[in-house]
Design a protein that fits this description.
Blueprint (H helix, E strand, L loop, with lengths): L5 H27 L2 E3 L17 E3 L3 E2 L1 H4 L2 E5 L5 E9 L3 H14 L7 E2 L9 E13 L4 E12 L5 E12 L5 H25 L9
Parallel strand pairs: 1-5, 2-6, 2-7, 3-7, 4-7
Antiparallel strand pairs: 4-5, 7-8, 8-9
Helix pairs in contact: 3-4
Amino acid sequence: MLSPKRPLRRALPSLLCCVALAGLAGACSSSSSVTNYDLTAPRQVRAGSSAVGQIAVAEPAAVQPLEADRIIVKEPSGAVSAVAGGQWADRLPRLVQSRLIQTFENSSGLRAVTRPGSGVTPDFLLNSELRAFHIDAGTGDAVVEMSVKLVSDRSGRIATTRIFTGRVPVGTVDAANAAQALDRALSIVLVDIVRFVGTGRPAEAPST
């Protein structure tokens, strides 16, 4: 009486295997529909003659919605959501840090720019915070806002601080348009930061 059940037992592992493969294929199909978007570093930035010497650029601080790789839309009510079908190529703070360093490297007037912990002793540490990096659903703008503090590595005192904002209109709020508009808004902010550091006069001059 057990013989009719044996074929079912033999078929069960094969059936489970097929289900698992189908699930894996579905997951791969879902992930392939998400496009990764990078950010760019402006080139040939005229920063003037810097008075701050060597700078270490720290990774920007950010609140949780901006800590990941999602492209964010913010409603007038304050509610946030992610744009479907796209994401940043890396965690947003790390990506912004890399592009800020590259923008400094593309400019003139700085002796050296690096990351903290690279073995270089900087004159100043550039700390920053991503205050905004989203599509404003109310205005239809891509908004990037960063606060920047230039801190003396010698004393730990804040030499200068400033807030930078970039706004760029965005048409259709899809992944490609949102990413492109936010990239352009970030470029405005990065250029302004580099020019500010390059032409500003910190309260405490670096050691010689």
